Amino acid sequence: MVEMKLIIARPSPYARKARIALLGLEAVVQARNLPDKGTWYRVRLGPYSSVDELNTIRGALNQNGIDTVMVRVQPTDKQ
């Protein structure tokens, strides 16, 4: 699964999701309330079945100025 870096500002993750949609990719915004830090948002794509597929998508995002972080999906992450 590709996960974009965490973003604090509320409008920003939804704008990022829209920007990703313009590239023909589907993303999901997840909000997490962190003690003493407020609500943080992450924009997630995937999961992808192969590393090659993941790297192709990461390359397209990076070419469009969108930094990503690859994460391994844990059973509890599937929401």
Notable characteristics:
27% strand; 32% helix; alpha+beta; 4-stranded antiparallel beta sheet; single chain; 79 residues
Give me the secondary-structure category: alpha+beta
- Chain oligomer state: single chain
- Rg from Cα: 13 Å
Order of helices and strands: EHEEHE
Helix segment count? 2
Globally, the shape reads globular
Strand content: 25-35%
Helix content: 25-40%
Stretches where pLDDT is under 50 for at least 5 consecutive residues are none
Number of strands: 4
Global mean pLDDT: 81
Largest sheet: 4 strands, antiparallel
Q: Provide the spatial order of strands within the biggest beta sheet.
A: 2-3-1-4
From the N-terminal CA to the C-terminal CA, the straight-line distance is: 13 Å
Q: Please, could you describe this protein's structure?
A:
The two termini are 13 Å apart. It is built from two helices and four strands; from the N terminus they run E-H-E-E-H-E. It has a four-stranded antiparallel β-sheet with strand order 2-3-1-4, covered by helices on one side. The protein is globular, with a radius of gyration of 13 Å. It has helices spanning 11-22, 51-63; strands at 2-4, 28-34, 38-45, 68-70. It is an alpha+beta fold.
